[in-house]
Write a structure and sequence with these properties.
With about 375 residues, the protein is of the alpha/beta class. It folds into 2 domains: about 190 residues, Rossmann fold; about 180 residues, Rossmann fold (3-Layer(aba) Sandwich), CATH 3.40.50.12580. The protein is built from 17 helices and 12 strands. The chain has a 6-stranded parallel sheet with strand order 2-1-3-4-5-6, sandwiched between helices. A 6-stranded parallel sheet has the order 9-8-7-10-11-12. Helix 1 packs across helix 4 and helix 2 packs across helix 17. It is globular, with a radius of gyration of 21 Å. About 35% of the residues are buried. The model has no long low-confidence stretch (mean pLDDT about 90).
Length: about 375
């Protein structure tokens, strides 16, 4: 009830402010998923500032929504429900990385471009309109109706995203994502220099011995909280079975990471979930273990080994979200169902690296580091 009242209040102020003309080159940035410097929205902001210094920017971040939910101060609440809708109403361009539910209660102004950059580079599991139900599904569909441009990496994903967001394919633009540019640029620089500064940073910050190989474990978020203790046991088992050559870094969903105390799990485990820039963590890892997470799309650009630890495959497929593709043929690496199978793949180095090139080819139409430029041309 409180959320609904908040949405209506936000929309009311927005509609009043629509009486004021749109301010040219005003950009409103909705960063409720990722407010880090390496996010899609942040990269576009930086590029627009370089392109034309007359652009002005306002922000609604994850920190803002947390503060409002916790009712932390009258000044914060007034800013969120009065200043933010005013800034949104006057924006010529809206950049966003998540569904913004207040949009379900208001209509985009004629002349405003709403650019959905999303926070995932691709998807394996179903999401959005394909899994949500009831009131939430209806709200998301109404909110997404305001999107004028949904940016993706490849035409191959247009049909999937059209269904997941509930918008027509003609609004989906396969021009590449800005954070792909950023990751490719950092890979290119590191390869040319023969050193990986992101790896040095992570190893130094977390006191990881230089001789270790870092395995990044990044499982997808499970919708049911009772699965979390099971995940803890799996991490313990994996850490104990690995040889001393390796250490294990965790990249978990914030809701799950908060319940993990790595010191209780073992000396060989490092909590990397709170690093703001996921690219830094990816560049530091020698091997990725995941399951159904979209992180595989970014990591595939590194051409490094990946293992798909699908310990609950049947449960996730039949009773969970399910998949858009045949999982086993889609993922660019071997699938394991038990910890022993994961360890065996690592020891035998049976990583099926030949599958990565095809995966990148199918999911990236561009790897030329010019996606941000194409987006700016679209905005112009």
């Amino acid at each position: 009830m409180k959320k609904t009242f908040g949405y209506y209040l936000f929309a009311l102020v927005y509609n009043v402010c629509k009486l004021i003309p749109i301010k040219r080159k005003r950009v409103f940035c909705i960063m409720t998923h990722d407010e880090g410097e390496g996010s899609n929205v942040a990269i576009v902001v930086g590029a627009l500032k370089k392109y034309d210094q007359s652009y002005t920017f306002s922000y609604l971040t994850r920190s803002d929504t947390r503060a409002v939910k916790s009712l932390s101060g009258i000044k914060m609440l007034l800013g969120f429900f009065f200043r933010k809708p005013y800034e949104l109403a006057r924006a010529e361009i809206v950049l966003m990385d998540n569904v913004f539910l207040p949009y379900a209660y208001l209509h985009r102004r004629e002349g405003t471009k709403v650019i959905q950059l999303w926070h995932g580079t691709g998807t394996i599991k179903k999401f959005g309109q394909d899994v949500n139900q009831g009131h939430l599904k209806m709200l998301e569909k109404k909110a997404n109706a305001n999107i004028t441009h949904l940016i993706v990496n490849s035409p191959s994903i247009k049909k999937v995203y059209s269904g997941a967001f509930g918008i027509k394919e003609e609004r989906i633009y396969p021009i590449g994502l800005p954070k792909t540019d950023e990751l490719l640029l950092r890979i290119k620089k590191a390869e040319a220099a023969g050193k990986w500064p992101d790896k040095e940073y992570i190893f130094h910050k977390y006191n990881i011995p230089a001789e270790k190989k870092l395995i990044l474990y990044a499982p997808t978020f499970r919708d049911t909280p009772e699965q979390n203790p099971r995940l803890i046991e799996l991490i313990k088992e994996l850490s104990q079975e690995l040889s001393q050559e390796y250490c294990l870094g965790l990249r978990l969903h914030p809701h799950i990471a908060n319940s993990f105390k790595t010191e209780a799990l073992g000396d060989n485990i490092y909590q990397l979930s709170y690093e703001k820039d996921v690219n830094t963590v990816l560049l530091a890892a020698d091997l990725l273990i995941t399951d159904y997470s979209s992180i595989v799309f970014e990591y595939s650009l590194l051409k490094r080994p990946m293992i798909f630890y699908a310990y609950d495959y049947e449960e996730f497929s039949d009773q969970g979200r399910g998949f858009y593709y045949d999982y086993h043929s889609f993922v660019p690496g071997p699938v394991a169902y038990t910890c022993d199978e994961v360890v065996d793949i690592i020891l035998e180095k049976e990583f099926e690296l030949y599958r990565i090139d095809e995966f990148v080819h199918n999911n990236y139409i561009y790897t030329d580091q010019n996606a941000t430029e194409r987006l700016i041309e679209l905005l112009k």
